[in-house]
Every structure is written in structure tokens, then in C-alpha cells.
Write a structure and sequence with these properties.
Number of helices of chain A: 0
Number of helices of chain B: 0
Largest sheet of chain A: 7 strands, mixed
Number of strands of chain A: 11
Helix content of chain A: under 10%
Oligomer: heterodimer
Strand content of chain B: over 45%
Structural class of chain B: mainly beta
Number of strands of chain B: 11
Chain lengths: 115, 111
């Protein structure tokens, strides 16, 4: 197990296009989180899963964003009708259970640029 | 929901000096407080964490203190080295919720 894996590493898309990112967590971790990070800011929470159940979504999460974790393993984050303001680093993290009170292991992120 | 404030936003120290970064949180129910280090172009990595049943935790040159009454916690780095230069983030949460992060502190250690 090499840690949390995210693909692609970079994505450039035109405004209005849809994009999808994938995250493969550490295999024994049943919690998976999505964050967004812009330059000079801390990771901003988007949503998280425990197994296949999506337990929490940020109030800041637009309807254009949707996430899935169909079999409780990998997860996908889709952004529809991308806007320039969506340009950011999208980070995935996973953690073992314990009600989320363990440190997260982050992936290297997917850097999205909307032109 | 939880809100985490972090200060200072930038911190410059000489090699060998100590560095202190402070965070405050808003939700008194929060009981887990990790610190992450993010080097340029890399992922955030957990460096130390503390739970609400302890007031201080040390790991070699780094330590974290927690004051639940005042709702603040701090990261202390002693004998700083150039490789400590990075962005440091504090975070907080309670059981069943996701971590909420501060905006980060850019630490620069000059030799």
C-alpha cells in the first residue's frame, strides 16, 4: 500500500466542461475526505464518506459538485459546468475509524485549472 | 460549525530559535487537534496531534499545548532548522465530523 493515490495530477479544462477526479484511499481506511486548497489558504472541507455513505457535505459545496464512493473503496469527485473560480488543488484524504479522531493521510492532490 | 483561526500568518526566525504558532477554535465540543506541515508543492503531512484529555504532548523538538477553557492550542518548535521551513496548519474536530483547518502559517528559518 503506497498511501492515498489521486488521479490525474493535473487537469486543464475549458470553462463549462465537466471534470472528474479519482481518489484511492489507504485500503484499511474506511473514512475518505475531499478538500479544496487555493494558494495561501488551508484545506477547505468539501465532503466525506464513511464506507460508501456520504455523511457530511459543506454548505459551501455548490450543486455542480458531486462525489461518490460506490463500493466503499475509491471515490470520485465530479464538477459540472466548471467555472474559473473552481481552479484549485483538490485534495483527498483518508483515515481509519475511531469516529474521525485520527490524523488524515493526504494524497498529492489534483490541480485543476479552468481556462 | 467549527471555525479555526491561526496566527501569525507568517513567521521568520533564525536557525536555533524557537517558533510558536497559535490557534483558536469556536466549537467547545471539539476534542481532536492535529497539526500538519506542508512543504512547497507537497501534500500536508501530520506532524503531531493532541486530544482533549491531555494538556501537552511532545515529540522531540515539537510540542503542542491545549487550553480547553480558553479554546486555544499552540505548536512549539524548538531549535529550529532550515528544513523546518514550510506552511503549518492547525485543525480541529469532534467525533463524527471532518477536520476544519486554519489558514496556515508560513515559517521561514534562516541560517
Amino acid at each position: 500500500d503506497t498511501g492515498v493515490s489521486q488521479n490525474p495530477r493535473h487537469k486543464i479544462t475549458k470553462r463549462g466542461q465537466n471534470v472528474t477526479f479519482r481518489c484511492d484511499p489507504i485500503s484499511e481506511h474506511n473514512r475518505l475526505y475531499w478538500y479544496r486548497q487555493t494558494l495561501g489558504q488551508g484545506p477547505e472541507f468539501l465532503t466525506y464518506f464513511q464506507n460508501e455513505a456520504q455523511l457530511e457535505k459543506s454548505r459551501l459545496l455548490s450543486d455542480r459538485f458531486s462525489a461518490e464512493r460506490p463500493k466503499g473503496s475509491f471515490s470520485t469527485l465530479e464538477i459540472q459546468r466548471t467555472e474559473q473560480g473552481d481552479s484549485a488543488m483538490y485534495l483527498c484524504a483518508s483515515s481509519q475509524d475511531g469516529q474521525g479522531l485520527y490524523g488524515y493521510t493526504f494524497g498529492s492532490g489534483t490541480r485543476l485549472t479552468v481556462v | 460549525g467549527e471555525n479555526v483561526e491561526q496566527h501569525p500568518s507568517t513567521l521568520s526566525v533564525q536557525e536555533g530559535d524557537s517558533a510558536v504558532i497559535k490557534c483558536t477554535y469556536s466549537d467547545s465540543a471539539s476534542n481532536y487537534f492535529p497539526w500538519y506541515k506542508q512543504e512547497l508543492g507537497k501534500r500536508p503531512q501530520l506532524i503531531i496531534d493532541i486530544r482533549s484529555n491531555v494538556g501537552e504532548k511532545k515529540d522531540q523538538r515539537i510540542a503542542v499545548t491545549l487550553n480547553k477553557t480558553a479554546k486555544h492550542f499552540s505548536l512549539h518548535i524548538t531549535e529550529t532548522q532550515p528544513e523546518d521551513s514550510a506552511v503549518y496548519f492547525c485543525a480541529a474536530n469532534q467525533a463524527g465530523t471532518a477536520l476544519i483547518f486554519g489558514k496556515g502559517t508560513t515559517l521561514s528559518v534562516s541560517s
